[in-house]
Design a protein that fits this description.
about 220 residues; alpha+beta; OB fold (Dihydrolipoamide Acetyltransferase, E2P); DNA polymerase, domain 1; five-stranded mixed barrel; 9 helices; 5 strands
């Protein structure tokens, strides 16, 4: 399964780019936003890939970042939405705008996308609301993990608890429930690791605490 291609632009046109990867040309279908950001021919570019395999065809769809690729994947899970309609969605709206329209039941905005009628727009809202919300939540957690201040040697239990509790409060939980989730997750991690084991990493403990809060 091809998930990412890094090469040079051999040719670009409306709706697709041919990417030269070590002498092999891959035709990758892309939304308008990718065509507009492509460098000139012969320049390097990296695309996140969604590969779709059918009985008589294998096609590649490329995106400039993982969020767009993930939203495209979610769009394809909607009844009646195929790759062409998925690309139309991401050509007409950003991934963030699609997520906002779904979250707010904004069927009217979605029907402005070429090829998306009221029935399909309604299914998108119905089938994607929870999935889009989960995707946004994952992105917030990832940013917290990336920007968290973590010591090079994590041997301070109090600091670890404070860091995770603070991160949970930044996500909207109150201090009491954030503290309970952190303490419970740490106790569970310690029980699994056994006596004498090092403290868990910030990211691992944060995700464990979030799992307790979202059950």
């Amino acid at each position: 399964m091809i998930a990412l291609l890094r090469g040079v632009v051999a040719k670009s046109a409306a709706g697709y780019v041919i990417l030269d990867v070590s002498g092999v040309g891959y035709k990758v279908y892309v939304p308008v936003s990718v065509v507009e950001m492509l460098p000139e021919d012969g320049s390097p570019v990296t695309l996140f890939i969604q590969m779709i395999v059918r009985e008589d065809d294998m096609s590649l769809y490329g995106f400039s970042d993982e969020t767009d690729q993930r939203v495209f994947e979610l769009l394809l899970s909607v009844t009646g939405v195929g790759p062409k309609a998925g690309l139309a969605c991401l050509s007409s709206m950003t991934a963030q705008q699609i997520a906002q329209a779904v979250a707010s039941d904004d069927v009217r905005s979605i029907t402005r996308i070429p090829g998306i009628g009221p029935k399909t727009a309604g299914r998108m809202v119905l089938e994607l609301k929870e999935k889009m919300a989960a995707l946004g939540f994952e992105r917030v957690v990832d940013r917290l993990v990336e920007t968290a201040r973590v010591r090079a040697t994590r041997d301070d239990k109090a600091e670890l608890i404070d860091d995770v509790t603070s991160a949970l409060m930044n996500l909207g939980y109150n201090k009491a429930e954030a503290s309970r989730a952190t303490d419970g997750a740490l106790a569970e991690k310690n029980a699994d690791a056994g006596a004498g084991a090092p403290l868990p990493k910030f990211a691992d403990l944060l995700r464990a605490a979030l799992n307790r809060l979202t059950k």
